[in-house]
Amino acid sequence: MNEPVVILGGGCTGPLLGLLLARRGQRVDLYERRADARRVALPAGRSINLALAARGLAALERAGLVEAVRPLLLPMRGRMVHDLGGEARFLPYGQRRHELLYAVARADLNRVLVDAAEAAGVRFHFEHACRDADFARGQVEIEDLAAGLRFELPLGPLLAADGSGSALRHAMVAAGLAQAREETLAHRYKELTIPAGRDGRHALALGALHIWPRGGYMLIALPNVGGTFTATLFLPAEGEPVSFASLASPAAARALFERDFADVLALLPDFEAQYAANPVGRMSTIYAAPWHSGGRALLIGDAAHAIVPFHGQGMNCAFEDCRVLDDLLGSAPDWPTRFARFDALRREDTAAIARMAIENYTEMRDTVRDPAFALQKQLSLELERRNPERFIPRYSMVMFHSEIPYAEAERRGAIQAELLAAATRGCTRLGEVDLPRLEAAVAERLAPISAPVAAA
Predict the structure, then answer these.
(1) Could you give phi then psi for residue 51, rounded to 5 degrees?
(2) Which of 195, 299, 309, 409 is 20 to 30 A from 266, alpha carbon to alpha carbon?
(3) Is 382 helix (H, G, I), strand (E, B) or coil?
(4) Measured between alpha carbons, how far is 125 from 6 in angstroms, rounded to an integer?
(5) Nearest to residue 284, comparing CAs of 163, 358, 165, 184?
(6) Rounded to 5, what percent of the chain is helix, strand, coil?
(7) CA 366, CA 191: separation in Å to the nearest integer?
(8) Which residues is 394 bridged to in the sheet?
(9) pLDDT-based confidence at residue 455 (cuts at 50, 70, 90)
(10) Strands 218-223 and 209-213
(11) Facing residues of 220 across strands?
(12) Long-range contacts of 262-271 (CB under 8 A, 24+ apart)
């Protein structure tokens, strides 16, 4: 543990990883291409806030940061679904006190993580970008952007937490040490800020993630400390009648909002200015293999397995990566073993959450409007009340149960979806469902979950 470790990436994952390493006595140097986010504002329109769930909280608890982060968190206990007529209905995420998500501002969370890592001894080098890696010579090239100088560092052990566009991943692929592909979603996003009301309060109801599902597209809004909401518009990139290509002008976008999101438009006095100024963002899934090169380098978080944001698990999954690697530091004897075991342990689970994230987009923008969805949601909660050791809704397994692997949540979720669809076929209300027969099928097909249910 005496050899220095280099981390690439100073977003949220890199500092958390650095902190966990430093707490084990490891010397850590972290290089980040951007300026210090504690002193420079995040550009408008780029993923301002995040959803923190049980897996992320478990990693923050490991790092001793839950209390430091708590003042930044705004609880969301369910989805507030807004229909075209302006009516809204609340769909709870779960039925227990701890089954909720927390909206958190990315910049605020990053500040806490960087401060804590720095206090633990992690040395930060901002405005330093990774330019290349020579695996034959065992060197990584870093550019000091402020000074315009390049220098080399020993390659290994190096942990690349430098995001979906990872420079280290590109270098591994170029050297023939890995294969990677990026699957870009045919939809894009644009963020808009709903200002606080005149009294400083939030303009929409707190305690919920707001969704305006419109079939092939949607708008969501998450609360921020300070009274604002971050609203994110998700549309196809191309095509008619609705896409970012067809809404090239603010006037065309206003017409869409007047028709489909009129209640939100009333809360955006500077709609045209924001729409014109804020960029359109892409969303991709990254598939790479392997994630490591011997004991020299390891991809972690989005650098290894970026996913689309529709399950709110990108950060949570990356934080879980940090916790798994921290466990391996205590159990595996050397860096090659740690890196190989990490790859083996996380690959199936990260592939599962990538698939579930894409599926959840369809649910959020479309399925959530279907009365059959509401009935199955109601039935799943009833089954959980009756059979808590066997039936936990898939969404709950992913979001609220850090002890259940993603792959297991996906496997059990597929069985549960099949049982719910069969039981509600031809039914319009819960009283019409043959519950004894359904419970018998649950007992037959779903083994008890032995892991304890952890309360956040």
Answers:
(1) -110, 120
(2) 309
(3) helix
(4) 11
(5) 184
(6) 40, 20, 40
(7) 20
(8) none
(9) very low
(10) antiparallel
(11) 211, 232
(12) 262/86, 263/82, 263/86, 264/194, 264/212, 264/219, 264/221, 264/231, 267/194, 267/195, 267/203, 267/204, 268/192, 268/194, 268/231, 269/195, 271/192
d(CA 259, CA 263): 10
Domains assigned to the chain: 5-70+106-183+283-360 (3.50.50.60), 370-445 (no CATH)
Cα separation, 348 vs 43, in Å, equals 34
Two structure tokens written together for 422? 């069969």
- The DSSP code sequence of 384-453 is HHH-TTT---HHHHHHH-TTS-HHHHHHHHHHHHHHHHHHHTT-SSGGGS-HHHHHHHHHHH-PPP-S--
Q: How far apart are CA 321 and CA 161, in angstroms?
A: 10
Q: How far apart are CA 456 and CA 454, in angstroms?
A: 6
- d(Cα 388, Cα 391) in Å, to the nearest integer? 6
Pair of tokens at residue 424: 């509600």
**H or E element, residue 298:** strand 297-299
Beta sheet of 78-82, edge-to-edge order: 88-92, 78-82, 209-213, 218-223, 229-236, 187-194
Which of helix, strand or coil describes residue 237? coil
Show the CA angle centred on residue 16, arms to residues 12 and 18, nearest 5°: 120
What are 94-135's pLDDT values in tens digits?
888 889 999 999 999 999 999 999 999 999 999 999 999 999
Mean pLDDT confidence for 130-154:
97
